Hints:
The chain is an alpha/beta fold. The chain has helices at 2-8, 45-55, 77-88, 101-107, 113-178; strands at residues 11-14, 23-27, 30-37, 63-69, 92-97. It folds into 2 domains: 2-110, Trna Endonuclease, Chain: A, domain 1 (3-Layer(aba) Sandwich); 112-182.
Amino acid sequence: MIILLKMLYLSCSQSNGDGGVDIIGCYKRHTLLVQCKDIKDKVSCSEIRAFRTVMDNYSKNATLGVFVTSKKNHYSSFAIDEAQEAIDLGFKLILTNIHNISRDIPNYELYDEDSLVIKKIEENFLIQEEIKKKIEEQGKKIEGLQEKDEKAENRDNIIICLLFFLIILLIVNIILTLMPKS
Length: 182
């Protein structure tokens, strides 16, 4: 447990008789609620629902609920559906096990209002950079088309000059054929 606490940089206290939470702590400016289960059967939807009910007592935006089992793949499909429903309602909830918890908590993206604003600014900046690149690409395409147009115009001018020269040659030839021979 101490290794996990150091890896995750969190502070916590063990809780007894707290109504469904084994560990309460603080992680990245969020209240961390951890429910641990070491049971024979898979975790049921009612156990997830009970944990969600406890989470209702805390701010959705500033609370991360972590449900931990002692075995891998130890959640029933109904429990997973219940957790997904909680997530859809705005709860921040992780279903994990003792083998993956040290990876799952740090990989979970937590946002508060400040980091959401920063993330939005970063996204807008990236969008602006992408738009600039697309504008530059379009500008290069337009320049390429303008060069093609100039080449086509030059080609057309050459063709017109050649046609004009051929017409002059025809006129000269007609004049020479119409002139009396001496």
